[in-house]
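Wait, mind explaining this?

_____
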Amino acid sequence: MKICPKCNQTYSDDTQNFCLQDGSTLSRLNQTADSRIEAPTIIHGEKVTADPHITGHGTVAQPDNTNKNYVFKLIGAALVLFLVLVLGISLAVNFYQLKDYFISILNPEPSPTTPTPQSSPSETNEAKEKRAVVAVMEKGADAILKRDVDALDDILAEEYVETYSPGQSFSRSQALTLVATIQRKSLDNTINRIEIEGNRATVSGRGVSRVVELLGEQTYRYQFETELKKRDGRWQVTRTFIKY
């Protein structure tokens, strides 16, 4: 049996050599089939080499993409697993940080305290007495500036004497009268030293006073030394020496 390679018309007469339809040279049917299998096939202008997987109908068998799909699925699963792992680690870190934060709020640790140095009873008593003496001195200066005779009368002892260089002295009543009559714009005293021996104290320092006089304001700078005595639990001024 022969076949026309152009129109595929078959002829049972083996002596027939040409196709009656188009005049093409006939080929034996077995040789034509073999040539179809072995001959290269042109698909859309590209040459495809003959392959033993070509089907009997002349079509090319589709390639197996199973392995490629498996690889893509494996890569996708690995990426998803990696993202889940990173997210889990981040959540765990944040959880422990928040836990420590709330624990620190609910159970704060006590701050370390600096031990206070212990003072001896004599040091504590001396500091207390010095503060009391300073308070009396400040009260006296404020009373002189404000011409508050009653406040000054409360801190001056009955035997109070006020002495000015070079030797002028005033009694308690005279000193109170001077305070009432002299107008001062300012009075600033600075204590340099305080000495306490039992119920007696000596305070020394310097000061500046602005006094209003007939000819105008005058500024006086002086040094002072004041003696105090503690009676009935409170300090009173017994003597003041002032040197201009």
Summary: The helical segments are 29-38, 66-106, 121-146, 149-155, 172-181. The radius of gyration is 61 Å. The longest helix spans residues 66-106. The chain has a mean pLDDT of 81.
